[in-house]
Amino acid sequence: MQFLQTKLSKEEWCHIETPIHTSELHIIQLIKDGYYNTDISINNNMSIFTFLKIKNYENIDEYIYTYYFDKLVKDMLNKYPFINITFKNKKVNRTQTNDSNDSYIINTCNITNINIKNSDKIRINNINIDIKILKKKIYEFILIDIIHNILKYFQIKNKLWMHYYFTLFKITQNNIPNTNRIIVSIVSFVIDYFQKNNLIDTLYIIYNSHNIIEKNKLLFKYSNIQLYSHQKEIFAVSKIHTPKLILYIAPTGTGKTMTPIGLSEQHKIIFVCAARHIGLSLARTAISIHKKIAFAFGCNSTDDIRLHNFAAKEYVKNYKTGGIFKIDNSDGNKVEIIISDLFSYIHAMHYMLQFNPKENIITYWDEPTISMDYEQHELHSIIHYNWTQNIIPNVVLSSATLPKSQEIKDTLTYFYTKFENSQVFEITSHDCKKSISLIDYNGYCIMPHYLTNNYQDILTIAHNCLNNMTLLRYLDLQEITAFIKFIHENDYIIHNHHTNIQRYFDEFINIDITTIKHYYIKCLQNIQPHKWEKLHHYFNENRTIIIKDNTHTQNTHLHKLPSFENTITQTITDTDTQIKRNASEIIIKDKTNIHKQTSNNIGIFISTYDAYTLYDGPTLFITNNVNKIATFYIQQSNIPTTIIQELYSNIDFNNSIQTRIQLLEKLIEQEKCSKNENINENTKNNKNRDKDNKNIQKYNIEIQNLKLMFKKININELFIPNSKPHLEKWKPNYKDNIIDNLHNIPFTSNIDEQTIHQIMSITDINDTWKILLLMGIGVFSNHNSTNYTQIMKTLAEQQKLYLIIANSDYIYGTNYQFCHCYISKDLDLTQEKIIQALGRVGRNNIQQNYSIRFRDYQKIYTLFNFVTPLQSHLKLEVINMNRLLS
Questions:
Q1: Which of 257, 387, 502, 692 is least enclosed, having the fewest CB within 10 Å?
Q2: What is the dihedral of CA 662, 663, 669, 671, to 10 degrees?
């Protein structure tokens, strides 16, 4: 990826004006408000009061309960009478608990005896909504349904009741506003009943936590939205009135890039990053929440800085529209956040210092490790210059893989020396709310206990995981619980206070994904050493394959084919390199067992056989040889020569039409310029001069006629991965063989005709890239087509692309939502950069199935950092930071 340090293009300016989704806006508002109240918490789920839009006051609880819930609750309790909740008719409706732990009284009365406002009574009685719809929307109905399942499965002695009990216990910890008081009291009694009678099997919940916790959609749906712990900490630290360097280390996708919006409530922010897309993403979000921002991209002086309209103090209005016509960019008094590339940082700094004291400015350097994994890079001199010339005393270095404070002592010493009385704060955080599975090239899950039969190596891995908690996110919870269960039931564990599972999970509320993963690491550290080799052998022999080989089910094996015919040897780069078949292709021949041959190709044919394994969302393929991988997938798609010929023919025809239209548009501009020179702009005829110009009329008519001549460009769905015809060809029984039986839906692209037309109208990109985009595959390669790049970014942001192929530097430049990622074998990555790559997956707030698929084991070893000790070449980022930031 090119880290462009140039001015913003017109397309980029237009893109930042696109508002973010409403659901994202709520989160950004939370971050903004959270600066003043770090304990802020919101929950947008609807209670019955929220749904009815009435206020909660005395007696309304009783009326609502009697009207909506009373019959449901009574019917349920009559069906499962072992829960002793009784009803008594009273004139005044109240609830109370008996002295006994096993009984509960609900005092009820006739609904006509409850006094509420007439307007509310009319509203409640007149809302005509199917009760089935209400049950799916309203929180109280969900609670009753969960209780019903608890009682139903408990009565038939099915342990599934604990799944629902755990759900009930957890979601009642959240703060859904105005929940009906009587329903809350019933829920509390049910929860207490099972706890006081010691009916809960903690081990069952832990061993089944993959389904009970991780895949529990209700836990996710009804959870509170609140600040991450690292956001709370940085907001607190920013209020300390001394020079400070903040080392801000938190996992990707946990809101680090949006944190400056909160910080800008009391500080002016200079947001600097080498990857412009990160800055533009922040800009778009900031504009959506009406923050006042400026841009410093490709600046040679402060005169090149540009203000967004919200930040403009002095401007000229358009006398026709009333909107802002011309901005005085020299006045930045209103700017709250200035977004800068590395090249322009010093100019952005001096610009902000014109209007603000330096003590009130924070330099927020996002992803400072970009380019630090290279021994030499063109950005290094810029980084060193910026650091030595910086005079802002408050600096945030933000990255998921930022070196720890003890590793960059030279950098810290320089900062201490430069800014008197300065302090260094290290904010670290890790997130285990979701698991992202690591999968090897044979389709198996990657876990520490599968990697080595040497117990000393296992201890090293465990130590590395504790030192780098981000790695816990990539440990599969289902594999973890199977391991924990086996070692306890077969006495492989050293028994002590660290490994006593009942003591470790002594509080029911503490059972969550994070604590279970921590306990797994403790178990790894406390295996009986002489039994490890046997234990390792058992698990490797009994591994369950995650991605099954789909090729041998269709009686196939790898077979060498000749290169493409001349009709489709189109150039794929800016050079004269032609497409050549660079890999074998699977052709139907005879039935063989690919797995036993250890072909290392399982899961790699993602344009054909293995496409169905990519579900829920888009996929990222990270490789150094972008063009080679792109070529491979277009070849593997087996698009017939006749279709390729027709596509290219139609593309050539449309290109010629587009060339003619561009020429006519230039002629129209020339006519307008010529007319402007001869006609006074204030004359009445000036308004209709375009209509009076016959040449312009003629050109416009010809353009309209030419547009009608465009040939429709599309590709048969048979060649679009995971479309219905594609699945029927490559995975005929996919509905019966969904991975893990979780009913995952294979993900496909969704590109509309208008976008296809835009793609085909691009003249400065190779036609091969156009065909790939028609298949739903986008490519980040070294080319100069801003139109292609912008269209692809838009499609990726809207999750309309099936696959993006990009080089390793791209990992820093995107906040797109990926569900899967391939790490190519041709990459040479440090541990830090691998973690950055993994961080592209699972960034959204949706509970989905994620995977990282490695094409070789060397990167897996590097990730867990146990084969090679911590050596300098693995910590090139540390060396460069100490060298450049000092």
A1: 502
A2: -150
Listing DSSP states for 610-656 in one string gives: TGGG-BSS-EEEE-S-HHHHHHHHHHHTT--HHHHHHHHHHHHHHHH
Q: 181-205 as b/e, with b when 16 or more CB fall inside 10 Å?
A: ebbbbbbebbbebbeeeeebeeeeb
Are the CB atoms for 250 and 256 separated by under 8 Å? yes
Distance, in Å, from the CA atom of 272 to the CA atom of 364, rounded to the nearest integer, reads 6
- Angle of helix 532-541 versus helix 477-489 axis, rounded to 10: 130
Angle at 243 between CA 241 and CA 246, to 5 degrees: 100
Residue pointed to by tokens 């005395």: 58
Which of 600, 636, 556 has its CA nearest to residue 853?
Answer: 600
What is the distance of C-alpha 706 from the center of its chain?
Answer: 42
Q: Give the separation between CA 350 and CA 782, rounded to whole angstroms.
A: 33
**Strand pairing report for 361-366 and 225-226:** unpaired
The two tokens of residue 2 are: 């090119």
CA gap 796, 620 in Å, rounded: 10
Cβ count within 10 A of residue 285: 23
- Neighbouring residues of 104: CB distance < 8 A, sequence distance ≥ 6: 84, 85, 86, 97, 98, 185, 186, 189
The 10s digit of each residue's pLDDT in 587-604 is 333 333 333 334 567 889
| Domain ranges, ordered by start, for the chain | 10-22+227-428, 48-225, 446-544, 552-639+716-855, 643-708
Tell whether pTM > 0.90: no
Average pLDDT over residues 766-784: 81
d(CA 817, CA 196): 44
> How far apart are alpha carbons 453 and 457 in whole angstroms?
8
Count other Cβ atoms within 10 Å, centred on residue 793: 22
**CATH assignment of 10-22+227-428, given 3.40.50.300, 3.20.20.70, 3.30.70.141, 3.10.310.40?**
3.40.50.300
Alpha-carbon distance of 826 to 628, in angstroms, equals 11
The span from the CA of 542 to the CA of 548, in Å, is 15
Residue 68 sits at φ, ψ, to 5 deg, of -105, -35
Would you state the pLDDT for residue 871?
45
| Closest by Cα among 153, 855, 776, 741 to 441 | 855
Place of tokens 């841009």: 295
Residue-level pLDDT at 559: 42
Tokens of 141: 């109905």
- The encoded tokens of residue 64 equal 């609502």
Tokens of 437: 């599975």
| Per-residue tokens: 250 | 């938190």
Question: From CA 548, how far away is CA 459, in angstroms rounded?
Answer: 31
Distance in angstroms (rounded) separating the CA atoms of residues 178 and 48: 8
Q: Return the residue matching tokens 């995977």.
A: 851
Q: Average pLDDT of the chain?
A: 83
pLDDT at 607 over 70: yes
Q: Among residues 89, 82, 130, which one has the least CA distance to residue 103? A: 82
Domain 552-639+716-855 homologous superfamily, CATH: P-loop containing nucleotide triphosphate hydrolases (3.40.50.300)
- In angstroms, the Cα distances linking 628 to 58, 178, 573, 625, 749 are 71, 58, 10, 5, 22
Do 10-22+227-428 and 552-639+716-855 come out as alike in CATH topology?
Answer: yes
Which residues does 632 contact at the CB level (< 8 Å), separation at least 6?
582, 583
Query: Is the alpha carbon torsion for 369, 372, 377, 381 positive or negative?
Result: positive
Q: Which of 806, 817, 800, 811 is nearest to 834 (CA)?
A: 811
The label of the residue with tokens 């929220």 reads 50
- Tokens found for residue 133: 């719809």
Tokens standing for 680?
């006074």
Instruction: Please state, in angstroms and rounded to a whole number, the distance separating the CA atoms of residues 187 and 172.
Output: 8
Within its chain, how far is the Cα of 640 from the centroid? 36
- Position 34 pLDDT exceeds 50: yes
